[in-house]
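For reproducibility, we list the full input for the adenosine-5'-diphosphate complex.
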Amino acid sequence: MLEMKHIKKSFNGQEVLRDISLTVEKGEVLSIIGPSGSGKSTLLRCATGLETPDSGEIRYTGTFGLVFQNFNLFPHYSVIKNVTDAPIKVQKRRKDEVYQEARALLAKMGLSDKENAYPCQLSGGQQQRVSIARALAMNPDILFFDEPTSALDPELTGEILKVIKDLAAEHMTMVIVTHEMSFARNVSDHILFMDQGYVELEGTAEEVFASSNSRIRGFLGKFE
Ligand code: ADP
Ligand code: MG
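The corresponding predicted structure, in tokenized form, follows.
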């Protein structure tokens, strides 16, 4: 589904990604963990074309959706318009069909009664569920999340993690940057631990959490 090979990226002479390679298979969940500043967001931005790597290769099949930490909803659009805008304008799909699908997605996200609300009238958790519905409305083959719960209060974090777990159960292909360690452990087929622009460690969730690598132990220790 996604293959990145030997990706390098520098900003102002500082190497932020130093030869990163990864593969995501269809239906797989890959979580990317690691300290702040290790290059996780830059890697996602390269994967999704928001940033151009200095060198390396990126190949993917189909289309992707992206869910950000800060929701990035259009503040002047209602919920339903946020969800339907790109499928109608970018994908040129039929309006009635897009609306029908959007309403089904909002129902799935528990937001049926909010379709005419504006983002500022919603809780952070509700805004993030709208942003997930918006990403899903494009029928993506792969969904990228960049710290989807970092801007949320702890009590709202659970509702977003539940939505992502449900998508995993439906075999949605996902790449998730997260600081939620028990969630990453439960939901991921593979985990990639980044440190200072390198992939320090990569493996199944069990392998990574059981690893004796001192950097991962030090990192995971901060969450205990
Ligand atoms: P993470 O998501 O793991 O916290 P980032 O990918 O956001 O890390 O950042 C990695 C490094 O790259 C940081 O030192 C950050 O300051 C730098 N960086 C990221 N984006 C830019 C940019 N557009 N211009 C300059 N430096 C950047
Ligand atoms: Mg980041």
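Residues 40-41, 146-147 surround magnesium ion (ligand 2) (CB under 6 Å). Residues 77 and 118 are 6 Å apart (CA to CA). Both points were considered when choosing residues for closer inspection.
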